[in-house]
Amino acid sequence: MYRVEAKRLADEIAETGSYDLENYPHITGVFTADDGGLYTSDEHYLITKISGTLYRVEYSTDSNQHGMLIINLVLCAVFLMMVGLLLYIYRHIIAPFDRLNEVPQELARGNLAVPIPEEKSRFFGKFTWGVNFLREKIEDDRKKELSMQRDKKLLLLSLSHDIKTPLSAIKLNTKALARGIYSDEEKRRSAAESINARADEIEQFVSEITKAASEDFMSFEVTQGEVFLSQIIMKIYARYAPQLSISGTEFIVHRYDDCILSCDADRLGECLQNLIENAIKYGDGKRIKIGFDKMDGCELITVTNTGCTLEAKELPQIFGSFHRGNNADKIQGNGLGLFICKRLMSLMGGEVYAEIHGDCFSVTLVVKLA
User: Fold this and answer.
1) pLDDT tens digits along 215-254
2) Is-above-0.70 flag for pTM?
3) With pLDDT > 90 as the criterion, what percentage of the chain qualifies?
4) pLDDT (tens digit, 9 = 90+) per residue, 62-83?
5) What are residue 305's phi and psi, to 5 degrees?
6) Residue 152 CB coordination number (10 Å)
7) Are strands 298-306 and 287-295 parallel, antiparallel or unpaired?
């Protein structure tokens, strides 16, 4: 601007021979050679020739300082905002995360008494609550397992001790019979009946031992409630549709009438996940579909896969614990998926059954309507 004003000033002097500095805010003085003493000024200046005379035009840049001040203030404000943001991130994200850094390692080592600091941060509050809930769940499961193992051990020891009594009676009677001590036919018959009775007692004890060893080796908890069928199916579809699409498996969910189910939503979702995982593992990868039907106040949810190689005679055993069909030789698994479904559906007041139609294997969950 000072150069523009200096040009305008030169034109005014050339035309009128005079000038008014009030019209030029950046110009502080105009001097000629006759004003030599003023050349010692510290002001910025430029030399211009007007009508053959050299003029020293002094100017000031103070007006730019206001703009620079504004820029500096803006930069300072931005810097302070960034510092505040970094402090906020440190206090509400980095510091809480650092306090939780060792918790997973301690839980993995089995240290369930590790303190988990409560966080009111909206970023980590729910996370810390979830970790603490997980710790309490693991601790509770461990206590239940220890209690169950202790009860089973006591039961087995008690039954083992009880078996010794009829076993001793059997040994005595068999020795007597072997040595011919009982010469009377009636006594021999009585000894044989005693052996048979004691054998029945041992058989009963063995049945109780088998029952104790097989039942309740897993703890199942069900919280009965109500949920829309669409909520369950949407979660299942969102979880498996992308995965099956990548593998080239046709995933079909038939149309259904939305309804309210009486069940534990999480447990029902777990059952459906088990069925679809089985369909993925034991099917031929061509097609998996979910069908629906209603019968006697229940919703029937059927998961069907193609490529069934299971023999029909094995259907009655597939819901047993640790049972694996003849089609599972080269597939990893523990034989608990359908057993878990059976137990969970029973606890929710429902049922589950399986069918084979040609090369298709179907498992149906029977869920009560609310």
Assistant:
1) 555 567 888 999 999 999 999 999 889 888 888 999 999 9
2) no
3) 26
4) 655 667 788 889 999 999 999 9
5) -130, 150
6) 16
7) antiparallel
**What pLDDT score does 70 carry?**
87
Task: Determine which of 64-68, 271-275, 277-281, 329-333 has the lowest per-residue pLDDT on average.
Answer: 329-333
